[in-house]
Amino acid sequence: MPIRILPPQVAAMIAAGEVVERPASVVKELVENAVDAGATRIDISVRGANHSGIVVSDNGAGMPPEDLDHALMRHATSKLDHGRISLVTTLGFRGEALPSIAAVAEVSIVSRPLGQDVAFCVRQAHGGPVSAARPCAGGFGTSITVSGLFDNTPARLKFLKSARTERAWIRYVVDRAAVANPQIAFSLSFQTGDPVRYRASSHPERIADVLGGLLKTDGLWIDHREGPVGISGMVTMPSAVDVPSSATVEFFVNGRHISDRQLSAALQQPYRELVGTDKSPHAAIMIEVPPEMLDINVHPRKSEIRFADYRAVTSALMTAVSSGLRDSGLRSPGSIADMARSLATASAPDISDARRRPLGRFVGQSNGSWLIAETMDGLVIIDQHAAHERVILERLKAASLDIPDTVVRLPTGAVRSIDDFEAAALEEHGDVFSTMGFAVAVSARAATLTAYPSILSGCAPSSLLDMLVDSASRGTAAGMMREAMWEMLATAACKAAIKAGDVLTPERADALLREIEATPAASHCNHGRPTVAFLNNADLGKLFERTG
Ligand SMILES: Nc1ncnc2c1ncn2[C@@H]1O[C@H](COP(=O)(O)OP(=O)(O)OP(=O)(O)O)[C@@H](O)[C@H]1O
Ligand SMILES: [Mg+2]
């Protein structure tokens, strides 16, 4: 076949394929344009089958009629000063979003800058001609209406996920825009259900409002500048960490939501050093760098970027997090963590004298929380709650092999209400849940737990259901679901464990020491903190200033 230049309409549709993947992509591009226009309020409404009708209205700068005539043209942008992408500080810069959307939908734009008597509007349908700007009714700012999305690209429609999942994606992009821009009030409404509203607020408040969960209850605000790099945001305390695949970790670079594995790894580093955990905090981190330190033009949907000096950014991030954690009062002597770790690899003891065992002979309990034991080398102090938690978790793991045979059935079921995102997540992970012995029915607005593995029979069914919804909706990648479930079981283990303050008989305490010794990896609790500390005879001697 001879080479032919594609007709503009076909070329536009191909380009749109890169930018407009699903209804949420349209919402993302329109919201970004509104943010770039300096809006302080953005209202989004989504209607119709397949979310094919989308209206985004803002109170930003608006466009005079001469700009409106260009807005739908490909490669027409007001955001590139002298064509220098390296100086861009706006979210948009390619002049591609509106024409791409108009290639796969009908788009009409009504806009009125401050001081202009009337609004003007333009319209383009499915890559056809753009109408000339003409006066029409409209307030200050811009309102863009998209209808019949993907009507002319049935293949794209087929690749959309369930209505619920697509709706969850829309919520996802609006939520990220809201986290990045706390000064902007947002509303998002769908045909059914209550609208989501975020009032203009401070950054910590907005993050807690939008991302909620552990960031709301255990969040720590950090703020740090290192040379040209500014870091601010919220991370969770070391007690509120998760397997990396289940942690909500959001990065924003100069207001742009991006994904970046290296940054996630750097975020984890201070937790590893200070607390000895491989788990990840939940976090929402804003990174501000001069635009010339960035290449923003490396991804079709602009969801990845490149830093000119990666080290400067990761180092500022790690310092921000570790000094935030230190300032919050966290202290964890590395030497104790190291010694506790060496316990796991201790060689087989001669056990004729309990003092020769790794955790020694039980001597007493202090403050209802610490078990004190004596070994040949010195003293051992054990966090009874954390260590017991670990023992239970390991037992749960061992018992999980035969879970499907042993389930507790709930005749009436435990019920809770759920939103669309949660429902979609539960449906998606249903298979994993059932292989673990859980039975969850999902209906329009509710989830019902009708069975759960009997190893968890000490737990309240309603809290098990909460944990299922939580672990499913944390956006866990399919292959990692089992790991997320273990996290959940660890939480259940917490609830059933011996609490701080429980007084133990010497027999029970001694039994616990032996259980801990027999448990793999018991030297760290389920949250990654050490459970055991050692004070050897030399350390004790130093305390009393004895030498030799
Ligand atoms: N809500 C809005 N308010 C004011 N001007 C707008 C709005 N939406 C679009 N524009 C104008 O239309 C132009 C084209 O928008 P479009 O989204 O297609 O491209 P862009 O934002 O410049 O770049 P990108 O393709 O990277 O998003 C913008 O440069 C801007 O001048
Ligand atoms: Mg844009």
How would you explain this protein's 3D organization?
This protein is an alpha+beta fold and 548 residues long. The chain folds into 3 domains: 8-198, Histidine kinase-like ATPase, C-terminal domain (Heat Shock Protein 90, 2-Layer Sandwich); 203-328, Ribosomal Protein S5, domain 2, CATH 3.30.230.10; 329-548, 2-Layer Sandwich (formyl-coa transferase, domain 3), CATH 3.30.1540. It is 37% helix and 24% strand. The chain is built from 17 helices and 24 strands. The strands form 6 sheets. It has an 8-stranded mixed sheet with strand order 5-4-3-6-2-1-7-8, covered by helices on one side. The protein has a 5-stranded mixed sheet with strand order 9-10-15-12-13, with helices on both faces. β12 (249-253) and β13 form a beta hairpin. α9 (261-275) packs parallel to α10 (310-327). The radius of gyration is 28 Å and the shape is elongated. Residues 29, 33-34, 37, 58, 60-63, 67, 71, 77-79, 92-98, 142 line the site of adenosine-5'-triphosphate (ATP).
SSE arrangement:
Elements: H1 8-19, H2 23-36, E1 41-47, E2 53-58, H3 65-71, H4 97-103, E3 106-112, E4 119-125, E5 134-136, E6 141-147, H5 154-159, H6 163-180, E7 185-190, E8 196-198, H7 203-211, H8 213-218, E9 219-226, E10 229-236, E11 241-242, E12 249-253, E13 256-258, H9 261-275, E14 280-281, E15 283-288, E16 294-295, E17 306-307, H10 310-327, H11 334-344, E18 361-366, E19 370-374, E20 378-383, H12 384-399, E21 407-417, H13 420-435, E22 439-442, E23 446-453, H14 461-473, H15 481-496, H16 506-517, E24 532-536, H17 537-543
Parallel strand pairs: 1-7, 12-15
Antiparallel strand pairs: 1-2, 2-6, 3-4, 3-6, 4-5, 7-8, 9-10, 10-15, 11-14, 12-13, 16-17, 18-19, 19-20, 20-24, 21-23, 22-23
Magnesium ion binds at residues 29, 32-33, 92, 97.
